[in-house]
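pipeline stage [seq->struct] | target=EAL domain-containing protein | organism=Paraconexibacter antarcticus | residues=247
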Amino acid sequence: MTPPRTPAPTESRGGQAIDVAYQPFIEFRTGAMVGAEALARFPGRSTAHVLRRAELTGRSEAIDLAVLRRVIDELQGDPGQTLPVYVNVSSASIPLPGYLSTVRRWLRAAPGVGPRLVFDVTETAPLPGATAVRRFVGAIRELGARIAVDDVPAGYDRVYAISLLQPDVVKLDGDTLRRSLEDASERVRIEAMTIMAHDHGATLIAEGIEAPVHVEAALRFGAAIGQGYHLGRPRCCPLADVHPFQL
């Protein structure tokens, strides 16, 4: 068997070597792969450390755009691949004119790619003001792409985030989901967010699925789709080589 092709790492505008790992989203009922998330990886370095430092030094935009560029190139090269791909966007990138203008330029030059993208807002810093968020939302929807909110109900004010972003997808935080197995207060937090997500017509995806018991918990909260090591680990490979349950 020919080993899967592994694209060479790209570089951000700041010169940081970046690879992209894809992790599948799996429908619990059927076991089918229904999408994938593109995750930044940094050869020889801790992902969490690099992302946090990038946010503190104002370099999140460069990382967000480097991953997006790789995903757009892959989707253009494989027009038959119709599953949605989630690309992370730091809340720190949202108000930057350069970020939004670059996204517009790239997607207008790649017809058909926008509807296959979901911009996944990660909130390790607070969201910017309402005007900047609405500008971002309008631009993303104009390009045919969708919006997800990450780490609900963890992070900053997720009620504010859901209200302002009006997301198509709400992703339940894996740590909170696992703690809810033992902690009633965590169950109440998740239930409140799931009600809000349903009221906004958003799809629920449960993150951090690491065992069958987590699948059962996710289903109880109304999530039909999950992501986590029990369903498939992130892999640095072409998107076409990503499959469910590659552990």
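stage status: PASS
auto-comment: Residues 10-241 form a domain with the TIM Barrel fold (CATH 3.20.20.450). The first helix runs from residue 47 to 56.
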